Amino acid sequence: MIFFYTRAKSFTWNTQYGPFEQDYVDSNYRYVEEGTGRRYRLGDLTAAKPGGDVDYEWHGARPYKGRHWAYSRANMDLMLGAGRIIFRSTGMPVYKRYLDEQPGVPLQDIWTDIRLHSGSKERLGYPTQKPVALLERIISASSNPDDVVMDPFCGCGTAVDAAQRLGRRWIGMDISYLSVDLIETRMLDAYGAVIAGTFELVGAPRR
Question: Most buried among 24, 143, 158, 200, by the most CB within 10 A?
Fold first, then answer.
């Protein structure tokens, strides 16, 4: 169970995304660009409500009755020049929306895609160890680069490892000297000279 608490009504929350299901990709991104192999779908370039000068004729085409162009003439020209617009057999322009530019499916409150298997190379022999990917997701969602992440029950240091990877500052705390030794070794092994001398060990418990 993961609990999310905030100190005030204003807080950081960065939506995280998972991959699309393959049947969704096959159904919605049916086209493959020749030469690049990029999958794409075709999107409408019209809108229901006008927003400025959007009722012009463009390359012989006009929006359907009751519709308007969704973009200015200048932006349409830019998209055409960038290869993002193609024309249907009717002469109507449509937008190429690439699959690899989409963030994916917003994650909900049940996560089943992250595991720490018994044979995982991540395992350090700590009984309550969590996957780095899990802490990376939590930290990415609830903080921004250079924010401070604190784990007051640091265990084997997965949270501070994830924070370091994601460019956050961090504070790790634990009452066990075994944990402190393990975390220090883990961080130095993982980041070596990059991190050596950049963190301070304060009040470490002793045997």
Answer: 158
